[in-house]
Amino acid sequence: MWWPTLLMVLFAAITAPAVFAIEKHSIENGATATDAVFACLFIVAMFAIMILFNAKIFKLLNEQTTRFCIKRTAKLTGVVVCISILITAILISIVLGAMLLIAKGIVAQTIGIVLFAIVYILAIIADVIVFSPIYYVGVKYLVEPEMKLKDMGKAYKRGWKNIGKIIGFTMLSSLLIFIAQCIISLPGVIAMLAASLSLQGIAYGDPSGLPSSFTVIFGLTAGISCFITCILMVWFTLSEYYLYGSIESKYRS
Question: Is the pTM above the cut of 0.70?
Answer without folding.
Answer: yes
